[in-house]
Specification:
This protein is mainly alpha-helical. It contains 6 helices and no strands.
Length: 174
């Protein structure tokens, strides 16, 4: 059995042409799918579009694990002055001491507590990371946001919505 290009193109779920017809002349169910084009078997779960991002993240185990690790690092960084009030660069032990009950991560070659250095260093690392993240987001919004080039470009009708962004960047009709 041979399949034409028009029949093959009609199996794209949700694809319609102007006037409500599907490519290849099919106005009803999509060829090859028993459910009319969704591609899902009966009883399969469908993601509801009204679910919030927060609700989706709370249901994801990997996202929650990452959030817990991030929370621990942020909490330790914010509590650094409380946990280790002295100067973290202060020589507190013998040089290159193995980890023990007093120095959980050991000491450096100079005798500095590695855990104190790590926790105090997390403060500056998080500050730099958050600053760069917010700055790149702000710059991305400025560069990527569409703006009308003139007053007439935002009021005229759009010639073809799918390709509108390349011919009239300020068009808001779709």
């Amino acid at each position: 059995m041979t399949t034409s290009i028009a029949t093959t193109a009609s199996t794209v779920p949700g694809e319609t042409l102007a006037g409500g017809s599907r490519p290849g002349g099919f106005a009803g169910k999509t060829a090859g799918t028993p459910d009319g084009g969704t591609g899902l078997t009966p009883g399969a779960s469908v993601r509801r579009p009204n679910r919030s991002l927060l609700h989706g993240l709370l249901g994801n185990k990997k996202a929650m694990t990452g959030a817990a690790i991030l929370f621990i690092f942020v909490a330790l960084a914010l509590l650094a002055p409380v946990l280790y009030p002295d100067n973290p660069s202060k020589i507190t032990g013998m040089a290159s001491q193995e980890p023990d009950a007093e120095f959980w991560l050991g000491t450096t070659a100079k005798g500095q507590d590695v855990l104190a250095l790590t926790i105090h260093g997390a403060r500056s690392s998080l500050l730099v990371g958050l600053t760069v993240g917010f700055a790149s987001t702000f710059i991305g919004i400025l560069v990527g946001s569409p703006r009308p080039t003139s007053a007439s470009s935002s009021t005229r009708p759009c010639p073809s919505p799918p390709t509108c962004s390349c011919c009239c960047p300020g068009c808001r009709s779709w």
